[in-house]
Design goal:
The complex is a heterodimer.
Chain A (H helix, E strand, L loop, with lengths): L1 H54 L32 E2 L19 H32 L7 H21 L8 H17 L15 H38 L8 H7 L5 H34 L7 H20 L7 H24 L10
Chain B lengths: L1 H4 L1 H6 L16 H8 L26 H13 L2 H20 L7 H10 L3 H8 L8 H30 L14 E7 L3 H14 L3 E5 L2 E6 L1 H26 L2 E8 L3 E3 L7 E4 L11 E12 L9 E12 L6 E6 L4 E3 L2 E17 L5 E6 L3 E2 L7 E11 L5 E11 L2 E4 L3 E4 L8 E9 L19 E3 L1 E2 L2 E2 L1 E4 L4 E3 L6 E17 L3 H20 L3 E9 L5 E9 L6 H13 L4 E2 L1 H10 L5 H6 L1
Antiparallel strand pairs in B: 1-26, 1-27, 2-3, 3-25, 4-6, 4-24, 5-7, 7-8, 8-9, 10-11, 11-12, 11-24, 13-14, 14-15, 15-18, 16-17, 18-19, 18-22, 20-21, 23-24, 25-26
Classes of the chains: A mainly alpha, B alpha+beta.
Bound molecules: protoporphyrin IX containing FE.
Protein name (chain B): Cytochrome c biogenesis protein ResB
Membrane topology (chain B): Multi-pass membrane protein
Pfam family, one (chain B): ResB
Chain lengths: 368, 594
């Protein structure tokens, strides 16, 4: 018994070391991302200047400055695959038909190298991070989701995992890198400093296989919804930027804003990304709540009791439902829907941090 | 909203004629402008890709009926549904921040005592019962009326769409969001036959219309959406039924005792307004033993680890007894009821002898834990039939403090340092006189009414003894004695029946499936047109139209084209591509700008 306890303690220490190491590597990834943005930007400026003086490199995908409705108004981008018929696609009428920005590196090779280094470091950090979470799970001999420290470490692991999965699937999401690594660092910092709890067993009410199902779904939903929220936020910025450009007589974006914004994907792409991400996890979040109700029924004798945690899950769910409705309602698409999506994510965050810390209810006994 | 949903696609093609009934298109803002600028275009081709309600609500005509219709259209519009959803989540917030009677009545009382200005206002606003308040009910009832008003016409419309056939090809396929073309040596007729086979193999609903094949797929999206919204109604009804017919009662049982499911046996009982109290299901159970274990070391020392009640239960008046265990996450299911383990504690077993040396009381007495986490518990022993040393009738009462792991210090007095029975001690005070139980007023069994009692004294001090199991304390003046024979455990159970649970779960499952279908399936149409080419063969044109979020449509169209090219191989493809690009008639920006 004591031997086992010592072994567990050992594991817990290993886990802590791994989490701290992951933070160190994430920090390096953060620096590499910064280098990508900064250095990529510099050469980007040069390229734009060159393009303006007419010696430009044409309108290759990477090179085109984000000039809306310029020439390519048809919004045609043929997708030709060898031996496949060419399909001509047309983007939505009314949308700006702005091509996606070239990414942080701005087509610059040096910047791109930093970007690749950043992604590699993120992969490494994630592996270490996942190791830390696994070691924690081994040390407590259960799923590592018993308290807020464990939620937080697992949560950011899921966020980065989802991001890397998208990259592996070949989705153009490298623009997510910097904001993601930044928030993961913040989240882990908060976890190890404020939320840290010694590894331990669960109180009996939390000891159920529904814990696995309900909490893992909640964490995955949260992680992916976070990606959606980042996309939405950037969409709002980029949309403002594009509408400024589209109206040459109005106020034009500043040099710094331009340098960042022009490298992001177009507002339409960001919006689409955010919608898809949110739509994909919405059923999972729905399932999370259903699983929670089933568990509550087994543990407390009622499937729904308006406990604060339940209330906020419900609020979050309804807010996302409102967002999906808004997307389908005239006059509510675009920015208004985006605000709703951010509001909905704020509800999720409040449910996750606010309710655990400020409100007492049946869910609060996990220990902060 | 219909028109805007397909706006991206349809407006690009210059026609957003998606008003489900007429195909005349009715839109707002850009979309409407785009439509009007158009002449021929898609016609019916873009219509009915969804069954969403028409957002156009013309100003009411004259009269009450006109207004009623206008109001109904408003209520069942997406916009109002959206606002109601928003209000619903907003309205749910106060209930999570202000104590709720339904969740924790004690907290509500404390809150009311602490806020004498705010509390009456809150009370008026229903803030202590948010989820059954008038205003919260109004929001969700309106929402569900809106929902029904939305579902019924959509279901009819969808049924109509299922009976109908995919609309014919629009005049200019080039205007659709995905388009491809090639030239082949195959005859137009053969191309179209092959096209029909190709799309059918991929489970498109299809037909031949003139010189084109029309195909459509993804009806399950709409079906899923309807199922989802209907399931929401089922869940609401199940929830309502659950609260109207629920029954829930609590019972404390000491090891060795039993319980039969009748109203009189409950310690407390509450039921929904439509529950018939004579209708309790006949069953019973007996508590044989209770296991509890606690964390022994570390910062969470004393935190409970396992609770397990060993019971046997029977159904009917005297069915066979079956053994089982009840744990926190594993209720017992019997006769449509669930029996949950909700708490436990200690019951010191005491023997009280009176002044005559006769046993006046013997048995376990449940003591209530004081919530310090270490089961410092209080309880009383009432002995109504005793005689003093002179043989006179009297009553004895004991106030006890039970400490499973006894410790004593100056500031806290006797207290417990661990929840398990490591060093159990019972501390007692003793009284004699009248317990006051003959007055007929029901008494709290956990409190001693000492108004008509006198506390025993010993050598001038109040009588107080610490008893270890097996120890006996003599009362002063030969009034008798009290012995701690041992310690049993008790457990509290909650028996609940809530009808409609199955419906709620079924509704939830259906909602989930419907939602997944609605979000993951794309409804889309594909047309293949083959026209005779100069000098033999034909020109094949293919185009696809989906709802706005149809990222995979071009891919799918290409797949279909590849499949079709097996029967109608391309010749001189390059030429056509160029041709087409030169005289591309439909610049989508035209439409949008108009
Ligand atoms: C009880 C409240 C409601 C909830 C929780 C809810 C939830 C949802 C959700 C999550 C979706 C997304 C599915 C999708 O995008 O396909 C959706 C779609 C939809 N809802 Fe609701 N809904 C509610 C009430 C209503 C009402 C009252 C209406 C009628 C006005 C309505 C009409 C629609 C329509 C037409 C869609 C399809 C949107 C589209 O075509 O994309 N819903 N609903």
């Amino acid at each position: 018994m004591n031997l086992a306890a010592a072994a567990n303690e050992n594991m817990a220490n290993i886990s802590n070391v791994l989490i701290y190491s992951a933070m160190a590597v994430y920090t390096l990834a953060f620096l590499a991302h910064m280098a990508e943005w900064v250095l990529g930007s510099r050469s980007k400026v040069a390229r734009t200047a060159a393009a303006l003086t007419g010696s430009g490199t044409g309108t290759g995908k990477a090179g085109a400055p984000a000039a809306p409705a310029a020439g390519t108004a048809g919004g045609k981008g043929g997708t030709a695959v060898l031996e496949r018929p060419k399909v001509v696609t047309r983007s939505a009428a009314g949308s700006r038909d702005v091509p996606d920005g070239p990414g942080a590196a701005g087509g610059d090779e040096g910047g791109d190298l930093y970007g690749r280094i950043a992604v590699s470091l993120t992969v490494l950090a994630w592996l270490v991070h996942a190791g830390g979470v696994l070691a924690r799970a081994l040390s407590v001999e259960r799923a590592p989701w018993g308290n807020m420290y464990e939620f937080s470490t697992t949560f950011s692991m899921v966020v980065v995992g989802a991001y890397l999965t998208l990259l592996v699937l070949g989705k153009p999401v490298r623009w997510l890198g910097l904001p993601l690594v930044t928030t993961v660092l913040l989240d882990l910092g908060l976890a190890v400093s404020v939320l840290y709890t010694e590894s331990d067993q669960l109180v009996p009410a939390l000891d159920s296989y529904w814990l696995w199902i309900h909490v893992s779904c909640a964490i995955i939903s949260g992680g992916v919804l976070y990606l959606g929220a980042v996309g939405t936020l950037l969409y709002l910025f980029r949309d403002r930027y594009e509408s400024k450009l589209a109206d040459p007589s109005g106020k034009q974006p500043g040099a710094f804003a331009s340098s960042v914004m022009e490298r992001l994907p177009s507002a339409a792409s960001l919006d689409k990304f955010a919608y898809r991400v949110n739509a994909v996890v919405f059923p999972l979040w729905t399932f999370t709540i259903i699983a929670g109700a089933i568990w509550a029924e087994a543990a407390w004798g009622r499937y729904w009791g308006w406990d604060p945690k339940e209330v906020w899950s419900f609020i979050t769910w309804v807010a996302y439902a409102a967002y999906l409705h808004a997307r389908a309602t005239a006059g509510w698409k675009g920015r208004k829907a985006a605000y709703l999506a951010l509001l909905a994510f704020a509800c999720f965050l409040f449910n996750y941090y606010g309710v655990n810390i400020f409100v007492t209810g049946k869910h609060s006994y996990a220990g902060v | 909203m219909a028109e805007t949903e397909t706006k991206n696609a349809a407006a690009a093609a210059g026609d957003a004629g998606t008003d489900p009934g007429t195909g005349t298109g009715a839109g707002t803002g850009e979309a409407a402008a785009a439509e009007r600028s158009d002449d021929a275009g898609l016609g019916a081709a873009g219509s009915q890709l969804s069954t969403a309600p028409d957002e156009k609500a013309p100003l009411p005509g004259l009269g009450v009926i006109g207004w009623a219709r206008w109001f109904w259209r408003q209520l069942t519009s997406m916009r109002v549904a959206l606002i109601l959803l928003f209000l619903l989540s907003l309205g749910a917030i106060p209930g999570s921040l202000i104590p709720q009677t339904g969740v924790d009545p004690m907290k509500v009382e404390t809150f009311k005592e602490e806020h004498d200005v705010l509390a009456p206002v809150y009370d008026k606003l229903g803030m202590f019962d948010v989820y059954s308040s008038v205003w919260f009910s109004a929001i969700y009832i309106l929402l569900f009326v809106s929902l029904i008003g939305c579902i019924v016409p959509r279901t009819w419309q969808f049924a109509g769409q299922l009976r109908g056939r995919p609309p014919g090809a629009p005049g200019r396929l080039t205007r659709l969001p995905a388009y491809t073309t090639w030239r082949t040596d195959t005859d137009p007729d053969d191309v179209l036959d092959a096209a029909l086979r190709t799309v059918r193999k991929r489970r498109f609903r299809s037909r031949r219309a003139g010189n084109a094949v029309a195909a459509e797929k993804g009806y399950l999206r709409e079906a899923g959406n309807l199922v989802f919204h209907i399931a929401l109604i089922v869940m609401l009804l199940a929830f309502a039924a659950g609260s109207l017919w629920k029954a829930e009662g609590g019972k404390l049982i000491i090891q060795g005792d039993g319980f039969a499911n009748t109203l009189t046996q409950y310690d407390d009982f509450k039921s929904g307004s439509l529950f018939d109290n004579d209708n309790l299901a006949p069953f019973g159970f007996r508590l044989h033993g209770f296991d509890a274990s606690y964390e022994r070391t570390g910062p969470q020392k004393g935190t409970p680890r396992t609770f397990r009640a060993h019971i046997s239960y029977w159904e009917g008046a005297d069915g066979p007894e079956k053994k089982d265990t009840v744990e926190v996450n594993h209720p017992l299911e019997v006769a449509g009821n669930k029996v949950y383990l909700v708490g436990h504690g200690y019951a010191p077993v005491v023997t009280v002898k009176d002044g005559q040396g006769d046993v006046a009381f013997r048995g376990p007495v449940a003591f209530l834990p004081q919530g310090d986490g270490n089961f410092t518990s209080v309880g009383v022993v009432k002995v109504p039939d005793a005689r003093d040393k002179n043989g006179e009738k009297t009553q004895l009462g004991f106030q006890g403090l039970f400490l499973p792991t006894f410790a004593l210090d100056e500031t806290r007095g006797p207290h417990s340092t661990f929840p398990a029975l490591d060093y159990p001690v019972l501390s007692v005070n003793a009284f004699h006189g009248s317990l006051g139980i003959d007055s007929g007023i029901p008494q709290n069994i956990y409190q001693l009414d000492t108004r008509k009692m006198k506390q025993f004294k010993e050598d001038g001090d109040l009588f107080r003894k610490f008893l270890r199991p097996g120890e006996t304390a003599k009362l002063p003046d030969g009034a008798g004695s009290i012995t701690l024979d041992g310690v049993e455990q008790w457990a509290t159970f909650q028996v609940s029946s809530q009808p409609g649970k199955g419906w709620a779960l079924g509704g939830a499952a259906a909602a989930l499936l419907g939602l997944a279908a609605s979000l993951f399936i794309q409804r889309r149409r594909v047309w293949v047109r083959a026209t005779p080419a100069e000098g033999g063969g034909s020109v094949v044109e293919m185009a696809g139209l989906g709802r706005s979020e149809s990222p995979r449509l071009p891919e799918e169209l290409a797949d279909l084209a590849v499949a079709l090219q097996a029967a109608a191989p391309a010749t001189a493809e390059e030429d056509h591509e160029e041709d087409h690009e030169d005289d591309d008639p439909g610049d989508p920006v035209e439409g949008a700008r108009a």
